[in-house]
Design goal:
With 111 residues, the chain is an alpha+beta fold. The protein contains three helices and five strands. Strand 2 and strand 3 form a beta hairpin. 14% of the residues are buried.
């Protein structure tokens, strides 16, 4: 866990211990929930990647060991760099329409 995450969690615990408001809706609570959700998504991507790798599954999983996260562009495109072990290929998944894009389509989507 990086130092920013540790600092946030330490601050959260200190505020809870001090009896300060860290309930749902508070900025600190929302930041802590967002951090935890991102860590769960990251772990899920790694697990999916490892399962697909072990079985040479014909499905697209987040690339780079499962650590890839979506990229958002000014055009509104939301792309995730993925890998398919059965095909041995990388490609971009368009998260707006749940479709694998060719390199040319991905480039067009972000311009």
């Amino acid at each position: 866990m990086n130092s920013n995450a540790m600092a946030l969690l330490s601050k959260y615990v200190a505020n809870v211990t001090a009896g300060l408001d860290v309930g749902a809706g508070s900025d600190l609570y929302n930041e802590a929930v967002e951090l935890m959700e991102s860590k769960v998504r990251e772990a899920s991507g790694v697990l999916d990647y490892n399962r697909a790798k072990a079985t040479k599954a014909d499905r697209w999983v987040p690339a780079n060991g499962g650590y890839e996260t979506e990229c958002r562009y000014k055009t509104g495109a939301r792309l995730l760099y993925c890998y398919n072990f059965a095909l041995g290929k990388h490609a971009y998944l368009d998260l707006n329409c749940d479709r694998i894009l060719t390199d040319r389509e991905a480039l067009t989507a972000i311009m």
